[in-house]
Amino acid sequence: MTRLLLVEDEVVIRSELCRFLSRHGYEVAEAGSAEEALERADLAGVQLIVADMRLPGAPGTCLIERAGGVPVLIMTSYATVRGAVDAMKRGAVDYISKPFEFDELLATIERLIAGAQPPAPGKSRPPREDPFGLIGDSSAMEAVRQRIRRIASSDATVLVLGASGTGKELVARALHEHGHRAARPMVTLNCAAIPESLIESELFGHERGAFTGATSAYAGLFKAADGGTLFLDEIGELPLNAQARLLRVLQTGDVRPVGSSRTQHVDVRLVAATHRDLAAEVKEGKFRGDLYFRLRVLEVRLPSLREREDDVLALAHAFIERACTKAGRPPLDLSEEAISVLRSHAFPGNVRELENAVERAVVLSDGGDIGPEHLGLDTAEDGGERASAAPSAEASLSLNDYFRKFVLENQDKLTEAELARRLGMSRKALWERRQRMNLPRKK
Ligand SMILES: Nc1ncnc2c1ncn2[C@@H]1O[C@H](COP(=O)(O)OP(=O)(O)OP(=O)(O)O)[C@@H](O)[C@H]1O
Tens digits of per-residue pLDDT, 178-209? Predict the structure, then answer.
């Protein structure tokens, strides 16, 4: 049954419309304001939002940007038709002027729903990218979007959790860009990619002469992010000393640069991310419990790609389109065999692995459909953690053995970025695994 969301503050009109649309076979959710629509109404599965332009609080048109890409039909009075035209420019799918006949509204809705039907499964389907840059219509992804919408405007600290390559950084950016700090800077530090000895001065700044090499004073990233957002990626790698200092900043809002006795107040929203199980790290004494509780005021959990299988093809199509546009090539499609490989592959490297495989396929394909040979993914439903670049002869090696062998054999001829890409992991994950396996990068 087609699901609509009706946003109208006049209760009588709303209930009349609701009854009328239900009689014509629609499932109708209702809200009295745009805020209520975003907070209370379940947007998952909504195919069209029908919203009054004038509402108490934010206007109906704000849903165009904030409803995660769900098409919006604006109802407007004659006096605000100009506004409706502007709404069309902002991306509303259509508008209807009040007063209107109910049948006229019904015809408009039917036309819009018919136009929005996805084409037959399998072949190219225009990917739906929402204002957050997140692709995927699965209910798990919808839940993530709802969560972002709900918490973006708050100032509370957010902990983004999820395996490598699930989109944690994208979510951090979406939180910043859709909050009230969007016009201020978002500053990112990858805690795994900076030597332990430098993390504190990088974050909190230092005085001139605070340590050997500190030839001038440095304000630090907290100060750089003042008024905006500081994104600490791989927070699980933060050394215990820096954890204690970070906790103090979060408690007081005051930063004291290394080697200084003076503090400075900063107004920073902190978003942190990790692929680690921080609760377990707390139990093992590797992460401070008090900091953990301070960080997870709000949490966003990202599902692995396998937990949202329905999104694999939408993502693949979107990445193909992007890669073709980037390469200035006409759009390519996936062969039936490639689709079935994508459906059965385990994707231990999550969306990043899929993105890399598709980019490689676009480069390798000769212009016909993309086949399994271009994707270079294994077809076995092994569910294991095997890197996508692993050739079949190496199938019996453990992932760690494979990683060691691949890195040792290729590090002299490939850049770190290329090594990471071939292994289907981020540079950061490569760096981290190198540390863990005592395979430091050659100087
Ligand atoms: N839902 C999504 N829609 C579109 N692109 C996505 C999505 N999720 C992830 N990506 C893409 O996948 C790649 C990896 O995402 P991102 O860097 O945000 O992951 P991550 O969880 O921070 O990974 P890591 O922990 O390894 O850094 C990026 O290129 C990102 O744009």
Answer: 999 988 888 888 888 778 888 898 899 998 88
Tokens of 355: 């993105």
Q: How far is the CA of 403 from the centre of ligand 1 (A)?
A: 21
In the chain the domains, ranked by start, together with CATH numbers, are 3-115 (3.40.50.2300), 139-301 (3.40.50.300), 310-436 (1.10.8.60)
Its pTM stands at: 0.63
Rounded to whole angstroms, how far apart are CA atoms 261 and 241? Answer: 17
Q: Whose CA is nearest to atom 24 of ligand 1?
A: 164
How many other CB atoms are found less than 10 A from the CB of residue 34?
Answer: 24
CA of 236 to the centre of ligand 1 (A): 18
Q: What is the ipTM of this complex?
A: 0.98
DSSP 409-432: HHTTTS-HHHHHHHHTS-HHHHHH
Question: Tokens in use for 255?
Answer: 């930063």
Q: Output the CA 312–ligand 1 centroid distance in Å.
A: 13
When mean pLDDT is compared across 45-54, 83-92, 165-174, 305-314, the lowest value belongs to 83-92
Closest residue to atom 10 of ligand 1, CA basis: 167
Tell me if 351 CB under 6 Å of ligand 1.
Answer: yes
Q: What angle do CA 171, 172, 174 make, to 5 degrees?
A: 60
pLDDT band at 83 (very low <50, low <70, confident <90, very high): low
Average pLDDT over residues 363-379: 85
Residue whose CA is at the smallest distance from ligand 1 atom 9 = 167
Separation between Cα atoms, residue 290 and residue 132, nearest integer Å: 31
Residue 255 Cβ contacting ligand 1 at under 6 Å: no
Q: Tell me if 351 sits within 8 A of 315, measured CB to CB.
A: yes
Question: How much distance in Å is there from the Cα of 163 to the middle of ligand 1?
Answer: 10
Each residue's pLDDT tens digit, 393-433? 333 344 566 678 778 888 888 888 888 877 767 777 788 77
